[in-house]
Design goal:
The protein contains seven helices and 13 strands. The protein has about 230 residues and is α/β, with parallel strands linked by helices. It has a single domain (about 1-230), classed as Spore Coat Polysaccharide Biosynthesis Protein SpsA, Chain A, CATH 3.90.550.10. The protein has a seven-stranded mixed sheet, with helices on both faces. Strands 2-3 form a two-stranded antiparallel sheet. The longest helix is centred in the N-terminal third of the chain and has 12 residues, at about 35-45. It is globular and about 45 Å long. The model has no long low-confidence stretch (mean pLDDT about 90).
Length: about 230
């Protein structure tokens, strides 16, 4: 199984820190966020990972080049202009579409959740698309899902004004080649939350993640993550 780590964002809400270091290389507990994810994927048994770059890309390239040789091959995909989360996946269709299933992960999230049950959940349901979810105390800031009793997603809304639940999109997806039929084929930015997940309502399943979860989007969230992280 391959995995794509979405790590190209500029981290504008974390400035001035991200003026000098890309968001994915911010250290948490003495380890770069990117390395936390790569180590997790290796333990999961992922066979190959690709990381997209944009902001301060040379630093990410240098960091990856210094990473100790491991069993899991790692490649980079540079975006001179940001494509958006789904646009990046669409651009890497040839690398992914021969896989029966593949992971897509937002690398600016931090979690100690074991992803093996998430993968098992996807396979047991023989799902077309599975997204990890967590309970949030700020549903207006997240993509919010509602489900039926089987876990099938019956509604999805990005940053709703009137949230219908507190189950939030964790930015961890397991998909197959049919995903490419849903991603809009058009120029410009293409985002999972706004452009793809609403199209998958009724066809995708949600799987709760157990453990610590934090979206490192602001200085306050970063401070919280560093205080709470136990690795």
């Amino acid at each position: 199984m391959k995995a794509f780590l979405l790590a190209a964002g500029a981290g504008t809400r974390l400035r001035p820190l991200t003026d000098r270091i890309p968001k994915c290389l911010i250290p948490i507990g003495g380890k770069a966020l990117l390395d936390i994810w790569l180590d997790k994927l290796e333990r999961l048994g992922v066979t190959e990972t690709r990381v997209n770059t944009h902001h301060l890309a040379a630093q990410v390239e240098d960091h990856v080049a210094r990473r100790p040789a491991a069993a899991m091959p790692l490649s980079l995909f540079h975006e001179p202009e940001l494509m958006g989360s789904a646009g990046t996946i669409r651009a890497n269709r040839a690398w992914l579409e021969t896989e029966r299933e593949f992971l897509i992960i937002y690398a600016d999230n931090l979690t100690d959740a074991d992803l093996a049950p998430f993968v098992a959940c996807h396979r047991e349901r023989q799902a077309e698309f599975t997204l990890g979810v967590f309970q949030t105390d700020a549903p207006r800031e997240c993509g919010i899902v509602t489900t039926d009793e089987t876990g099938r997603v019956t509604a999805f809304e990005e940053k709703p004004a009137a949230p219908r639940s507190n189950w939030a999109n964790a930015g961890i997806y397991l998909a197959g080649p049919s995903l490419f039929e849903v991603i809009p084929d058009r120029p410009g930015l293409c985002d999972f939350g706004y452009d793809v997940l609403p199209r998958l309502v009724g066809r995708m399943h949600a799987c709760p993640l157990e453990g610590f979860f934090c979206d490192i989007g602001t200085a306050a969230r970063l401070e919280y993550a560093r205080r709470m992280w136990r690795g």
